[in-house]
Here is the input.
Amino acid sequence: MGVCLAYEFTKMAEDNTEQQENDQETMVQIVTSVPRPIWKESKEIAKKDGLRFAEFIRICVILGLNAYAEGNNKRLVNQGLREKQGKQEKNR
Here is the structure.
């Protein structure tokens, strides 16, 4: 799924730059599979929150990508700090 998402979002960005003159939001359909209990729970949450299911899924994808990117950035920063600290210790 990650590879498909990366490809689709890259494609969407390329398409979006060509269509910026129109100021239209570009939507890309992504097909994936989830366990049935998660699907059922998602439908219930969306209904209770007064959201259409498609909108709820879009929110989840955006929040999930944001959480993933944030975690990845933290990991990269920590990795860089450890490397910097290791170099400083070697120079002592």
Summary: The two ends are 46 Å apart (CA to CA). The helical segments are 2-19, 36-48, 53-91. The first helix runs from residue 2 to 19. Residues 1-6 have pLDDT under 50 and may be disordered.
